[in-house]
Design a protein that fits this description.
The chain is α/β, with parallel strands linked by helices. Helix content is 40%, strand content 16%. A 7-stranded mixed beta sheet has the order 2-10-9-8-7-3-4, sandwiched between helices. The chain has a 4-stranded antiparallel beta sheet with strand order 11-12-15-14. The longest helix has 24 residues.
């Protein structure tokens, strides 16, 4: 039976906390933009390049061979081993396959991690600005989310460790960190990682580290990872995805790295969630891990050019302020005369058909910011900047 206006206000059709989820301003702005037929969108976090043939061919070959049945819930053993080999090859660390869980997207990995540790009224401490879906996932898990923001100093984002540690309460169950950061491009240092790990051990709390953008760095082969410093039984989950580095956003494939004792509980939760990723998609992911380095380097070369184009663009427009972009493919900037990110984003859509993501979608501290995704062709970025220039 559906609720109606004559029923008491205490009646809820759905879970009360779901009805009170905080709105997703980024999704709202995307919907607002798509109503215009000539919209140019750099508001979503994906590139313009389609999945490379060697990955698609692997999926097709798997289907032709009949690999279309149920797969092991946490992934085929050979693909989990491919992940283990990947960490050894790229990060020079040894993570056994039984700590590596294939998931139906990086978002699913977050939900599995949160579901495994959270009770009603637990608290999550989130380092912001942060991707809105992570905050929403914690809310769906019935946790209270407390936010601590990165600090801005000398045109760079910085982490105040004392401020982060001081925000932990007796109810804090986990610290949620995205590094490299979507949307800021900030990268956590090895020393900061070690300090947070040691603090979490002392407080007996979890760390959930989203490292989806770990390969999208412009200096070195990868960003520092929590896995390079953690002990096998630390209360640590790291989340990753095939979406960004391998141009597989629509495939919905990710992975979760857990401590030595997490395999059984994650398997049980995944069994009641979606029983794991599709068989042929898992096998395509294995091909991406094995043969994808050349493609990653090609993508990085394009994104580095676009990054330089943006650096030069912002230098010519002093009314815009964009902190250094250390990693990822996002420019997170402000307009000094337009502090309302929602109004600015609507103006861009209405006046020049350019869709960007409002900063308020990423936390309380970034309401004046706007995010531009530059994982696109040079021509598309040039057109976007022409449109932006007309407004500023």
């Amino acid at each position: 039976m559906n609720a109606n206006k004559n029923e008491p206000t205490s009646f809820h059709t759905f879970r009360e906390d779901l009805e009170n989820l905080t709105p997703n301003a980024g999704a709202e702005m995307l919907r607002y933009g798509w109503r215009k037929p000539d919209i140019l969108s750099l508001g979503q976090g994906e590139g313009c390049v389609a999945t490379p043939d060697f990955i698609s061919d692997a999926a097709h070959a798997a289907m032709q061979k009949g690999r279309t049945f149920y797969a092991p819930v946490l992934g085929f053993p050979e693909v989990r081993q491919e992940l283990s080999d990947y960490y050894h090859r790229i990060y020079n660390i040894d993570i056994p396959a039984n700590r590596l869980f294939l998931t139906g997207s990086g978002t699913t990995a977050i939900h599995l991690a949160l579901t495994s540790i959270l009770d009603v009224n637990d608290e999550i401490l989130a380092l912001t600005p942060i991707w809105k879906n992570l905050l929403g996932a914690a809310e769906v898990s019935r946790a209270k989310v407390n936010q601590v923001s990165l600090e801005m100093k000398d045109n760079q984002w910085h982490l105040d460790l004392e401020k982060l540690f001081a925000a932990v309460t007796p109810k804090t169950k986990a610290i949620l960190i995205v590094t490299p950061s979507n949307p800021t491009g900030w990268v956590m240092s090895h020393d900061e990682i070690k300090a947070v790990l040691e603090f979490a051990r002392q407080k007996n709390i979890w760390i959930i580290a989203d490292e989806v953008y770990g390969r999208i760095v412009y200096d070195g082969a990868h960003a520092p990872s929590f896995l390079e410093h953690a002990l096998p039984d630390d209360k640590l989950y790291t989340v990753n995805s095939f979406s960004k580095s391998y141009a597989m956003t629509g495939w919905r494939l990710g992975w979760l790295v857990g401590p030595t004792y997490a395999e059984d509980v994650i398997r049980d939760i995944a069994l009641y969630d979606n029983m794991g990723p599709a068989s042929f998609i898992q096998l395509a992911g294995g091909a991406a891990l094995k043969d994808g380095e050349h493609f990653i380097q090609e993508q990085l070369a394009l994104w580095a050019k676009n990054r330089q184009t943006l650096i030069e663009f912002f230098a010519k427009h002093p009314q815009l302020d964009c902190p250094d972009i250390s990693a990822t493919f996002y420019a997170f900037f402000t307009h000094k005369n337009k502090p309302d990110c929602m109004a600015f984003c609507r103006e861009l859509i209405d006046d020049v058909a350019l869709s960007l993501a409002p900063g308020c979608a990423f936390g309380k501290s970034s309401r004046s910011y706007v995010r531009l995704c530059f994982a696109c062709s040079e021509a598309k970025l040039a057109e976007a900047l022409k449109r932006l220039e007309k407004v500023i």
